[in-house]
Design brief:
Layout (H helix, E strand, L loop, with lengths): L43 H5 L20 H6 L7 H17 L3 H14 L5 H17 L3 H14 L4 H13 L3 H14 L5 H24 L8 H9 L34 H10 L6 H11 L4 H14 L3 H12 L6 H17 L3 H14 L4 H13 L3 H14 L4 H17 L3 H17 L4 H13 L3 H14 L4 H15 L2 H14 L4 H14 L2 H14 L3 H24 L7
Length: about 575
């Protein structure tokens, strides 16, 4: 069962982001962008509300009803209050604004500001906001920010001024303050205006990418947990480098010793690396593979592939790609090594959001090694991520035909069929898929993946009690898999609204595997929704340090920045979204 964090399916699937958490295979973390944390209950109706662009100034463009222009023009100035004269200047400015005469409008709004008594804060804030609207039309972003700031100082919860300032700050490339303003707007509008939500999402993505680019380039590579590594390799059944040491590679006295790692009889960096794999001494594998490669040993191709695999596991795709390229281009190498390298490079491309290159590599792997079940198994997962469910089912069928005892492929085929039926709102096909899960766990009772995917389907169907039982089966089979505890914790929140039990289970996941980034991310998201923003930021930062790709790191930075923006909004304006 996969130890990696969940992936987010392409839009339109109807499934929550963590639905695919337990897909097995090369670690793929696909993000379609940061999801704004507070928008838990947004519906289609809410998304469709408030799409109009805020362009016009506030207030009537005509004189007050019952007073025509001529009468008002002839009125003695001393008979009017300063506020009335200010309102008159503003109304005149609105006429110019609507006529596209922005410089004239600015002059009128400036007059209104000068005439308005300082104690009339609401009116004065409107005049500043209207002048900012005119400056906006002239693309004078600094002046927009200045006038909106005056408006917000007078009226701290002035949505129009906050949003206009946010847009101007974006133009000035001040993303941090832009995010704070648009965060305040989202909270004040109860997340019902798509325009402000889209700006928030856009800025979060940009900030996340910028920070991740710098951080990922200078990050210290980190070996994942042994459970993650073993789960990763278990997804390959036709993979030379993950097989145990063969006869002739062990000393005679070691050949009959079960449960003990064999000693290598010849001076081979690759064989030494294989021995370290059996001992779970993973930190030494890259250096031993390098010795084999530099010496030009007979296992050079295998060493290149094994080294590339561990570079991928520690999140160093830049170092992995040249090794994978060399193996793929070794036409005299074992075809299974080349096919495995193509699978891993294809998965790497998918992680980098290059689906065309990914598809090309998987197709090439199928061409050069037509009877390799791993090719179809992993390509099936790629097709699921691309929402090409029919093709995914076809690949899983091919994998099962080549390897009928592949429990993982059986389980994932059921999941693909279930997802297709669920998103297509086809109750009879949903039931067929659920029956398929029952058949999988009956025929493969030791396959934790079958129980895990079935649990997710059961959760969708509101069969929470049975889903909980399936997660318990997973834990019984794989007690060291932290991801299962996170999912069981999420189930408690959805099923019983039992926050304490949910958090206890996620804490247990971190206790089992303190490198489980999914656990830290989930904990951070929950803490945001509880209003514990400092704790949330701490959790997100821990997940960032464990991220296995730049894209995953960007997503986590987006979550962290969203939480930080909330702390600033709460401090400045006393605004907080609803909490759990």
């Amino acid at each position: 069962m996969a130890a990696s964090k969940p992936v987010e399916p392409q839009s339109g699937t109807g499934l929550p982001r963590w639905q695919l958490a337990l897909l097995v295979g090369t670690p793929i973390v696909l993000g379609v962008g940061a999801v704004y944390l507070w928008n838990r209950s947004r519906t289609k109706e809410r998304r469709e509300k408030g799409n109009g662009e805020r362009k016009t100034p506030e207030g009537s463009a005509s004189p007050v009803q019952g007073q025509d222009g001529a009468a008002r023009a002839n009125r003695e100035q001393e008979d009017m209050s300063p506020l009335d004269r200010a309102q008159g200047a503003k109304n005149k400015g609105n006429k110019y604004f609507k006529a596209g005469k922005y410089e004239n409008a600015i002059q009128c709004y400036t007059e209104a500001i000068a005439l308005c008594p300082i104690e009339q804060k609401t009116d004065l804030s409107t005049f500043y906001q209207n002048r900012a609207a005119a400056y906006e039309q002239q693309m004078k972003w600094t002046e927009v920010v200045q006038d909106c700031s005056q408006a917000v100082e007078l009226n701290p919860r002035y949505v129009k001024a906050l949003f206009r300032r946010a847009k101007a700050l974006e133009k000035l490339d001040n993303k941090k303050e832009c995010l704070e303003d648009v965060t305040a707007v989202c909270i004040l509008e109860a997340f019902q205006n798509q325009q402000s939500m889209l700006l928030a999402d856009k800025v979060l993505k940009q900030l996340g990418k910028e920070k991740a680019k710098d951080k990922y380039k200078n990050r210290e590579p980190m070996m994942p947990s042994p459970q993650f590594i073993k789960s990763y390799f278990s997804s390959f059944t036709d993979d030379i480098i993950s097989q145990p040491l063969q006869k002739g590679e062990k000393k005679d006295e070691d050949k009959d010793k079960e449960g003990e790692a064999a000693e290598v009889t010849e001076s081979s960096g690759y064989l030494k690396a294989k021995q370290y794999m059996e001992e779970e001494n993973y930190d030494k594998i890259v250096s031993e593979c390098t010795k084999e490669i530099e010496s030009g040993g007979r296992y050079t191709a295998e060493a290149l592939l094994l080294r590339a695999t561990f570079y991928l596991l520690i999140g160093n795709a830049t170092a992995a790609q040249p090794d994978l390229d060399r193996v793929i281009n070794m036409h005299d190498a074992n075809v299974k090594l080349r096919a495995n390298a193509l699978i891993k490079r294809g998965s790497m491309y998918m992680q980098q959001q290059q689906p065309m290159l990914s598809t090309q590599d998987f197709n090439m792997a199928a061409e050069i090694d037509t009877r390799n079940p791993d090719v179809y198994h992993h390509r099936g997962q790629l097709k699921i991520l691309l929402d090409q469910v029919d093709e995914a089912v076809g690949d899983f069928d091919e994998c099962i035909l080549l390897r009928p005892d592949s429990a993982l492929a059986q389980a994932q085929k059921c999941f693909a069929l279930y997802r297709q039926a669920y998103t297509g709102n086809n109750p009879s096909q949903v039931q067929t898929a659920m029956d398929g899960f029952e058949d999988v766990i009956r025929r493969f009772p030791k396959c934790a993946e079958g129980y895990a995917l079935y649990a997710q389907a059961l959760t969708d169907q509101q069969q929470f009690g049975k889903a909980d039982e399936m997660y318990d089966k997973c834990i019984e089979l794989e007690p060291d898999n932290a991801t299962t505890y996170v999912h069981k914790g999420l189930l408690q929140l959805q099923w019983k609204q039992d926050l304490d039990l949910g958090l206890d289970l996620i804490s247990k996941a971190i206790e089992i595997d303190n490198k489980c980034d999914f656990a830290y991310e989930t904990m951070g998201t929950i803490e945001v929704q509880r209003g514990n923003l400092d704790k949330a930021i701490e959790m997100f930062n821990k997940a960032i340090n464990l991220a296995k790709s730049e894209m995953e790191m960007a997503h986590l930075y987006s979550l962290c920045d969203a939480a930080y923006a909330q702390t600033e909004v709460a401090r400045k304006y006393g605004l907080k979204p609803p909490t759990l």
